[in-house]
Write a structure and sequence with these properties.
Order of helices and strands: EHEHHEHEHEHEHEEE
Shape: globular
Oligomer: single chain
Strand order of the largest sheet: 5-4-3-2-6-1-7-9-8
Largest sheet: 9 strands, mixed
CATH architecture: 3-Layer(aba) Sandwich
Distance between the termini: 24 Å
Bound molecules: NADPH dihydro-nicotinamide-adenine-dinucleotide phosphate, ligand LIKH6CAM
Number of strands: 9
Helix content: 25-40%
């Protein structure tokens, strides 16, 4: 069974994840960063797309010492399993995610990845091959389930989030809307990719909670699986 999947993102008041040159920018405030650290510390694994690794070079580590200790006291690694979705094994060998903090890393590649690149990356991370050209997300998530991963946090970016929605693989969405306007028709948004054409295909969400946070707002959405979901 695949893990429970929740997406967490921060977007500007005009719905952008970063600038048009895809430069990492601070959208949410300190309280939201603490909240993100908490939910990260509670999940089994955290996942991003290669676009986010190349743009932001995130470590995806738990930052707060007490949260790290709590995980260790519960017999878990200090950090959740860190995962990159990277069909072509483009993850730089110097990427922070491969070096900062202890814990397991998995790079999911496709069958088209260059074997020499995957061999180098396998010194730092487990390599999982799913799909021919692009990573087959559905089967990869099933594989994560066999590893005992029950909760999976997705930190972006918009291309990966789109694919997860398109394949019906998202259960919850946390959207922090920060008090800035970024603009730019080419700036990334929470669900890029191809986009839906037919309204019947739009995933429906139930608003579970809305609260003020920092100078913005945090929305917690549940993805409706059936028409009966409230
Ligand atoms: N504000 C926020 O909360 C966040 C903002 N960001 C921002 O988002 C931007 C990065 O997002 P984006 O460029 O969309 O990149 P993503 O991180 O979404 O990575 C997308 C890449 O993942 C690879 N991939 C492999 N298989 C799949 C699949 N089945 N479906 C989708 N993607 C797949 C593809 O590359 P390949 O074919 O080579 O494998 C694809 O181009 C940056 O600007 C970053 O700053 C990112 C995270 C959070
Ligand atoms: N919650 C949140 N608010 C913002 O303003 C952001 N720019 C992001 N970005 C995400 O945080 C990741 C950084 O991770 P590390 O601190 O390096 O562990 C980055 O890659 C985005 O996913 N998030």
């Amino acid at each position: 069974m695949r893990p429970h999947v929740f997406v967490n993102l921060a977007m500007s008041a005009d719905g952008k994840l970063s600038t048009k040159e895809r430069r990492q920018v601070r959208i949410s405030g300190d309280a939201d960063f603490r909240r993100v650290d908490l939910i990260k510390s509670q999940c089994d694994a955290i996942m991003v797309g290669i676009g986010t690794v190349l743009a932001d070079d995130p470590s995806l580590t738990v930052k707060d010492a007490l949260l790290k200790k709590k995980r260790a006291d519960g017999g878990r690694d200090e950090n959740p399993v860190r995962i990159v979705i990277d069909s072509g094994a483009r993850t730089p060998v110097s990427a922070d995610i491969l070096h900062k903090g202890p814990g397991t890393r998995i790079i999911a590649v496709s069958g088209s990845a260059n074997p020499e690149k995957t061999a180098v990356l396998s010194e730092y991370a487990e390599i999982a091959v799913f799909g021919d050209e692009r990573v087959d997300l559905s089967n990869f998530l099933e594989y994560l389930g066999t590893l005992g991963i029950q909760s999976l946090m997705v930190e972006g970016g918009g291309t990966l989030i789109w694919s997860l929605f398109a394949e019906g693989l998202v259960d919850e969405l946390f959207t922090c809307i920060g008090n800035v306007v970024i603009g730019g028709r080419d700036a990334p948004t929470p669900a890029d990719g191809e986009g839906y054409i037919n309204e019947a295909d739009f995933p429906s969400l139930v608003l579970k909670d809305a609260e003020r946070i920092d100078e913005g707002i945090l929305l917690h959405w549940i993805v409706k699986k059936t028409d009966d979901d409230q």
